[in-house]
Design brief:
The complex is a heterodimer of chains A (about 170) and B (about 300). Chain A has helices at about 25-40, 90-95, 110-115, and strands spanning about 10, 50, 55-60, 75, 75-80, 85-90, 105, 130-140, 140-150, 155. Chain A has about 170 residues and is an alpha+beta fold. Chain A folds into two domains: about 10-90, no CATH class; about 105-160, Archaeosine Trna-guanine Transglycosylase, Chain: A, domain 4, CATH 2.30.130.60. The longest helix of chain A is centred in the N-terminal third of the chain and has 12 residues, at about 25-40. With about 300 residues, chain B is an alpha/beta fold. Chain B has two domains: about 5-25 and about 85-310, Rossmann fold (3-Layer(aba) Sandwich), CATH 3.40.50; about 25-85, Sun protein, domain 3 (Alpha-Beta Plaits), CATH 3.30.70.1170. Chain B is built from ten helices and 15 strands. In chain B, about 55% of the residues are buried. Classes of the chains: A alpha+beta (about 170), B alpha/beta (about 300). The interface of A and B includes residues 72 and 74 of A.
Chain lengths: ~170, ~300
């Protein structure tokens, strides 16, 4: 076993038996976490490769490259591991969370706008605590806005600062 | 002499040219088909009371006569991206297909890069390179907001871009040996953006035109070398200067095994010029397209399509 080199992209091992770097998440575990937590179709992530750069930061990539690879970015940041509770990214939830059937909270118009601006909200949720997909109705469908952390009877907006928006008030 | 006066001898209608350059540009957004359809975007804009109209040449390019492109739900979801109308052209001309291996040599801040990813249905492999580390964060931010997962971001000088870091000298099945298509949307003197950036001429000088032309030649030459025989390179700038356009093509036609092919563009323009400041260029540079601001009420632009390997 070797230590993680946070300066390069390493492809995740397929399973724990293939692991060569201490503490590295496996492809199987990363896919299972997403599919189990959000009730996604089992084949959602077929064809993607998964990589670690930085401590615990997992990236999803639609193609493949030799591992390790030296680059500034590889696909999209997807999941934060190497901590007790794994955390999905806002951008991955927007990209892959539309088909979720579990741990999705759909907000009304006013609460959705406040959530997008980064406000924490009261509960209106009686499911599991932890990271949820926060969505709203838009143009004929339910669309994921980002990630909320439901804990201590509160829905915390964990939308990164660069993605928070105060929508223009209607004219 | 202002930069615009410099080109009046090239322009079909100098008065319309000057008048268009003085008008500000309307707000325009591109629909990001990785995350939404044109119909859904238009329905969401309608829901928010944001006026929008499709351009007459592309249903996925919408003008917003009264609003800015941000601060609305479609933007928050990464369904739309603010992108000047004419700057939608080079990616469409490159026409990348799902599964292709594509290089965007000067990618930041990523409007055209993310458009390439959408045209590829986010499948295949897209390398977005820029030599400016500060601008790479904008590229990465835009790519993530727009849901792109097939992009490799690199920070290198495109003039000597090596494929070795992608395993080109090895036997890994995931290596990259060459690109199918390359976009060179080159750094330039940006004269054509005068409607968007009224101070674009403040830093203009002929010395800068000549120095940036040297960089452009180096990048386009490397792009041709890194493309497989039969592959395509699109060269574009937002400048009118022939030194940065036809002269760059002329140099690369001479230095590398490649030829210009016709640009089949949905926007009006005029052919490239074969003569400028006492210099003659390869006659095939006429196949390039010059777009002046009064042609389509857009910014100014230059575009050429290069086929590699004769």
């Amino acid at each position: 076993m070797t230590d993680n080199d946070g300066q390069r992209f390493d492809r995740l091992p397929a399973t724990a038996a293939d692991r060569e770097v201490t503490g590295r998440a496996t492809r199987t575990a990363v896919i299972e976490w997403w599919i189990d937590r959000f009730g996604l179709p089992a084949e959602t992530f077929d064809g993607y490769t998964f990589w670690e750069k930085g401590a615990g930061k997992i990236w999803i990539f639609a193609a493949d490259l030799p591992s390790p690879t030296d680059a500034e970015g590889l696909g999209m940041t997807f999941l934060r591991t190497r901590q007790e509770h794994w955390k999905p990214t806002t951008n991955a939830v927007q990209r892959f969370g539309g088909a979720a059937t579990k741990n999705v909270i759909t907000l009304g118009a006013d609460r959705a706008t406040r959530f997008l601006a980064g406000e924490d909200l009261g509960p209106e949720w009686d499911g599991d605590w932890g990271y949820l997909i926060v969505a709203h109705e838009l143009a004929g469908g339910v669309e994921p806005i980002g990630v909320g952390l439901y804990v201590h009877d509160e829905l915390r907006s964990v939308i990164p600062k660069g993605r928070r928006t105060s929508l223009s008030p209607p004219e | 002499m202002t930069p615009l006066e410099r080109y009046e001898s090239l322009v079909d209608d100098p008065e319309a040219f000057r008048a268009a350059c003085d008008r500000p540009l309307p707000s325009v957004v591109r629909v990001n088909t990785i995350k939404a359809t044109v119909e859904r975007v238009r329905a969401a804009l309608d829901d928010e009371g944001i006026a929008h109209e499709p351009t007459d040449w592309h249903p996925g390019v919408l003008r917003l006569p009264e609003a800015s492109p941000g601060r609305n739900w479609p933007h928050a979801h990464g369904w739309i991206h603010g992108q000047e109308e004419v700057s939608n052209l080079p990616a469409l001309l490159l026409d990348p297909q799902p599964g292709d291996v594509v290089w965007d040599a000067c990618a930041a801040p990523g409007s055209k890069t993310t458009q390439l990813a959408a045209l590829m249905d986010d499948a295949g492999l897209l390398v977005g390179n820029d030599n400016n580390l500060g601008r790479l964060s904008a590229l990465r931010h835009n790519a993530e907001r727009l849901g792109v997962t097939n992009l490799v971001v690199t920070n290198r000088d495109a003039r000597n871009f090596s494929l070795k870091p992608f395993g080109s000298d090895g036997d890994d099945p995931a290596r990259i040996d060459a690109f199918d298509r390359v976009l060179v949307d080159a750094p330039c003197s940006c004269e054509g953006t005068i409607r968007k950036n009224p101070d674009a001429f403040d830093t203009w000088s002929l010395d800068h035109v000549h120095s940036v032309a040297g960089v452009q030649k180096g990048i386009l030459r490397r792009a041709v070398q890194a493309t497989r025989p039969g592959g395509v390179v699109v060269y574009s700038t937002c400048t009118f200067a022939p030194e940065e356009n036809e002269a760059v093509l002329d140099y690369v036609l001479d230095a590398e095994d490649c030829r210009l092919v016709d640009v089949d563009a949905p926007l009006d323009g005029v052919p490239g010029v074969t003569e400028w400041a006492g210099e003659q260029f390869d006659p095939s540079v006429e196949k390039a397209l010059r777009i002046y601001p009064h042609h389509n009420d857009t910014g100014g632009f230059f575009c050429a399509k290069v086929e590699v390997g004769g």
